[in-house]
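Sat 14:20. Reprocessing the chain from the morning session after the first attempt stalled halfway. Input below, unchanged.
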Amino acid sequence: MIPKIAARALTLLAIPILVSALLLVPRCLLALEDDPEGPLYLEADSAELFEAISLSIYKGDVIIRHGTMELRGDQVMVHHDLRRRPEFIVVIGTPATYLQRGQGEEKDTEAEALHMEYDRARDEITLIDQAVVFQGENTFRNDLIVYDRAQARIKAGAITKGKERVKIRISPSRR
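Finished this time. Tokens:
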């Protein structure tokens, strides 16, 4: 039998460990939320599947959800690998939109363009024609923007072979 003093000491030691473990749970769940092996959810007015060439085409108010990412457009083409995982997604809209729910960040990342291409292997979204990325109060505009999701890095202008000058609005933090 453990003396009362020793039991109380063990309880006091266990509390910080339990609290630390509970604080880590949401981070673990968020990391799993963006699992590249996770399912892809689609909604559309119509769908065509071409199994022989691993391509599916969706039309009419298309919504794609994958983890914490959401893409919307008028028409979407999804190129699949042999395991039916999306490799390359093309979204066309007026405009097509992208939303990345913030994981431990204050603001979501939003973007829009007339044409978007998502490359799963590179974890990049290329925004083409009337492209805008919104990060909180800040905006980036150009005819061609590449958003590296893994690095949370935005490239625009000459570095992406864009034809226009980059227009950026940076708002001071309101803390």
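The helical segments are 4-33.
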